Amino acid sequence: MSEAPVKTKKRFIAGAVCPACSEPDKLMMWSEDDVPHRECVACGYADTLNAQGLSVPKELGTRVNTSALKPAADKSVQAVQFFPNPKLKKKSED
Ligand SMILES: [Zn+2]
In terms of residue numbers, what domain contains 16? Predict the structure, then answer.
């Protein structure tokens, strides 16, 4: 089974305050596989909510979706296209 990544709609949460930088109205929220994701556009803080509705902070720099961010000023950081082999699916992750 190979499903294309679902495009998620990110929405700003009115009145929400970032737990990391305390900036209001900077949090975006969307769902992936019914899991609520949040991301702060001000500081880059991101987390998900688990089944109990508790915040689970993401590790920065590992799985950050840079396509949603402004282009980095440092041109030495180059986007690399990576084509994973579908036969080599990780089973331990997620
Ligand atoms: Zn923030």
Answer: 8-57
